[in-house]
Amino acid sequence: MRKTRTTRRAVALAAVAVIGSGLLAGCASDDGTDSESGGDSDGKTVITVGLFGTFGFQEAGLYEEYEKLNPKVEIKQTVIERNENYYPQLLTRLSSNSGLADIQAIEVANIAEVVRTQADKFVDLGKADGVTKEDFLSWKWDQATTQDGKTIGLGTDIGPMAICYRKDYFEAAGLPTDREEVGKLWAGDWQKYIDAGKRFQEKGPDGVAWVDSAGGVYNAAISSSATRYYNEQGDVIYKTNPDVQKAWDVAAEAATEGMTAKLQQFTKPWENAINNGDFATVSCPAWMLGNLQSKGGEKAKDKWDIAQAPKAGNWGGSFLGVPEASKNKEEAIKFAAWLTAPTQQAKLFAERGSFPSAQASYDTPEVAEAKHEFFDDAPIGPIFSQAAKGIPTQVIGPKDQLIQENIVGTGLLQIEQKGVSPDDGWKAAVKAVDNALDE
Predict the structure, then answer these.
(1) Same domain, residue pair 58 and 153
(2) What is the pTM of this model?
């Protein structure tokens, strides 16, 4: 959940969901206490946690709970708001084996590079007491595991995909409004989602776009593909990968057919458009719900609903790892295992809206019975659990985020806002990606 989670945690949890009747407060970043790794505080062992954006562990009371269970332990965290600032610092500190927290977060966009180049700098958490591989979604576990079986990080949240839609606009356009029937409109194929948009355009309210942005369509479509920008051998294949081409084609069609509101996601105009009700659908990872609620306001309550996406996909997520250089390694391992265990992940979802990567938590009441009041009591626990279980194991490369940002921010944006052709937009995207990869 972190900009492409600047990566999306700082944005996505800027406003967290209301689940059932519980009020979930949002904030821009965790309020942590800066501290040096290691050391004692009043005779206690201090475990330091290095994070980016808002993970919500502290706000959900998990640190306090662990300290009560372990009176000789004190938890302190340091937070850098943006991952693009956090990650280079992490690499520098791993290189020097100094300045590291006892537990370090790793964004999903960076996990492949860390697994390939920094695995020897992290403890194998797959061997930690209390950690069971089967408790986690297999694709999530695999993302942080080396070819020889070393698991350098335990999954925290994930971003299973759905489609959020405005029921009032669907009714005006003569489309079904029941979430099950809506899901059937596009089940199995992102092209069907675009086709439904064409139907919407014929009779939908004036001034209302089908979708917020071409970039959002692309991100969602490519997030449901097993292969994206690299193959399993680590070669860059985005230019020839048919899955990338399909995602590009549906996004470009949405742009050229005037189906989008021509917005860049997570900008002020995008937030204003949510408040104004300027578009009828948006691709919705679990963390997106808070944005729609916060920016839509009371006037939009019960007008939004949630249906399954055309294909199961993941957009977002992170991991916790314990560096070998940790000054309190054994205590850090215990805490990382506890913090990512199914019980704690269920609590974090209930309090903060972070959807669990621990599938064993899906049968807990906190997840299985979760509904979202703002979205007409949509059963978000079952909706996102079903999506999470269908997500393919994805090949993630070290520069996935860079490639995707240039495809969206250069190629699709030129089609959408400058009116260039899809062919010219693709050429511009390829040039931008190749230049970025050569830097």
Answers:
(1) yes
(2) 0.86
